[in-house]
Amino acid sequence: MKKYGLIGYPLGHSFSRNFFNEKFASEKINAEYVNFEIPTINDFPKIIAENPDLAGLNVTIPYKEQVIPYLDELDSDAAGIGAVNVIKLKLVNGKRKLIGYNSDVIGFTRSIEPLLEPYHTKALILGTGGASKAVYHGLKKLGLECLFVSRGRHNETTITYEELTPELMEEYKVIV
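and the corresponding structure tokens:
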């Protein structure tokens, strides 16, 4: 039986285990989904070592960035974003290889791309939380100039909400 799971801390709020185990049962997939609630990322290698049938993991807070040094490879999106939310484990020449991905950028770009028109060349990203990195990366891949809006100015690509004007909103045709 293949095993999949979720790493993060805390995980009491997560619906993933029940969702995936019900999905596996209804689809007659011989697999199980387990929550690996680890209080520190230093526990991650133990999870890998003690679960030889592990085929993949989802990653949630606070480990989306912290897990990267433990991986063998990152796909280009995960590397560009600097965060991983999916890990694929595969066997290569008898050794387990851990490959990190970021599925947020895929979901976001596939959702927004059909809505974009030629005049959409700039986008405002409201907030600078974890998902905003994936949104920024996806919009840049789609060729849009991006500007973050946040409670506090962080750098030259971020303005505050107080600085957001109707004229700026008109100039930046896409707001996400």
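(Above: one complete record from the training split.) The chain has two domains: 2-101, 105-175.
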